[in-house]
């Protein structure tokens, strides 16, 4: 059996290692450059590879192809594979049959990383033998090859879900759905929503779907479609006989007639959206039968995720916050919503079809000045030019932070929450966040 892996990054190299271990004839092809550390891993495992090209003769003879999530379906080589009827799948689909571990799959437009990290923290604190993978950390496929975990917590992007056929998580979470990556879905929101719901398409009556009952797109899909999974909702405004909700400043989670209660102010994560992430994660912990004392302790000591509303420093009584992971409007909505002081907002990057109107009322209420950090800021300037007193364009992070500092007074906040992808000026959102933190430390 010939396995061709498109993309020589974390998921690609991990899949190649697992494929080799399972007796496949493996070939890795990357149209870009493969990083040296990954090349070394491929060489030491005796795996053939090429980079900066796709040699069709070596690819189109595959029995199965694992495509890295970053490669679009519209890529010429992918189109050719599909035309020939060669299965093109994701790392998760390839690796899942080789493990008997149960998986907890987490998707959503926002909050999925925080929820994934929190679920992992809860299960690990309880002493479970658990792995963390998917869109985050070490490749799931490589862990299946090398580690023997009993369960995995997987962050799953819509791109990874597009490449599944039979995979099903035992427990699925959809944190929320808002327009994102529409450039990959023919600019049709419903295609993107369907993509997220692929997480539940193979689930059975023995599986669970935990979801945000306040989310319009999710509610609409559930009204018009069915899943066999047992539904467990969470909400900030409704209450349930089974599910998670807020009542009298307590978070309550009721599953199988067993109730868990915790005061909301004892939960380490701040903000309404994080309360939802905590409800989703606690629902998993209850399904995994983790002791209440352990859940309480884990929720009260969880540190949060880097580049997500991360407090960097307070300088001259101005708080600097790194929310570089906010790569869409909805994520930035949460960030602005949780600001309690006049805010200088650093925004911009590669726009993925954003509608900034959703932010208008929050910008009017909370933002005193905007620093645009991107190659093309026209849409942002058109949207907010008349709304804030001060609007400045910059082309690098040091200038952005220095300008922001000049615009602040004591008690203000400087918030980097770009609402856009980072690829115009940075390698990725981590690079953008790290440059922000470095620039703040240099003030």
From TrEMBL:
ATP binds at residues 108-114. Residues 106-284 form the Mur ligase central domain. The keyword Hydrolase does not apply. Coiled coil: none annotated. Pathway: Cell wall biogenesis; peptidoglycan biosynthesis. It is an enzyme of class 6 (ligase). Its EC number is 6.3.2.9. It holds the Pfam family Mur_ligase_C. It catalyses: UDP-N-acetyl-alpha-D-muramoyl-L-alanine + D-glutamate + ATP = UDP-N-acetyl-alpha-D-muramoyl-L-alanyl-D-glutamate + ADP + phosphate + H(+). One of its GO terms (biological process) is cell wall organization. It comes from the Bacteria. Cell wall formation. Catalyzes the addition of glutamate to the nucleotide precursor UDP-N-acetylmuramoyl-L-alanine (UMA). Belongs to the MurCDEF family. This is UDP-N-acetylmuramoylalanine--D-glutamate ligase. It comes from Flavobacterium frigoris (strain PS1). The gene is murD.
